[in-house]
Amino acid sequence: MRRIPSSLATLTLVCLLTAACGGEQGGTDGAAPTAGPSTGPSTASVLSAASPEETPTEAESSPEAKAAPTTAPAVAPTTAAAPVKAPLTCAHLAEARIGSSKTPYNGYPDYLPLAGGQWSGEDGATVTLQKPCGIGDMDGDGAEDAVGAVAVNSGGSGTFYTLAAWRNSGGLPVFRALTDLGDRTPVVSISVAGRKATVVWLTRSPSRGMAELDIKRTSVFKLSGSTLTEVSHTDAPYNP
């Protein structure tokens, strides 16, 4: 048997080993890349960056996030309260006006302003507000008006009494109407009810002198335009 030289055997073994190594590693053309850590971005991260996950916006909120419509509770209608009329008192008449250009008092062409219940003119006449006064609605507007009396003295013996009405304008007296009662016929009392003024005053019989008062008259007056019209009266004897 022929013996193979050791050198040839060694060379043959190296070739076999080299072929085996080449089969595992392969060449550079068509060889699979060696797996290992990559410094570039991964495929998953690239896809994630290219197609970001959409988040719901306020306009695209899910049906569960929307509030269910509610029905507002019905509000019961309220009735506006009637405006409260400012009160008018007898004390207000002390600063009131008597007469007007349309309804002159005692022949004066314009109103006379009372101050502290009195007015004095350059002609020597003095107008004085009398104490009797009545408060009540005379014209049906729901506000309480005032009815009072004034007396004028021009320096002589005569004192002429006049009944006057003032309407309530926001708690202030505004002259409305008047009617003359006569000379030396003082007013005893005034009351207002049912849009009428009941006035008790003193007067005389036709046969009596001016200073002789023998009748106590109760007259009922109703407001009619710019005058107080007497609708009825009753007389009773008066003995001072």
Automatic annotation (TrEMBL):
Superkingdom as given in the UniProt entry: Bacteria
Keyword entries, A-Z: Signal
Region called Disordered, residue ranges: 27-79
Low complexity compositional bias, start-end: 30-79
Signal peptide extent: 1-22
Protein name as catalogued: Lipoprotein
Species this chain originates from: Micromonospora matsumotoense
Origin organism lineage: Bacteria, Bacillati, Actinomycetota, Actinomycetes, Micromonosporales
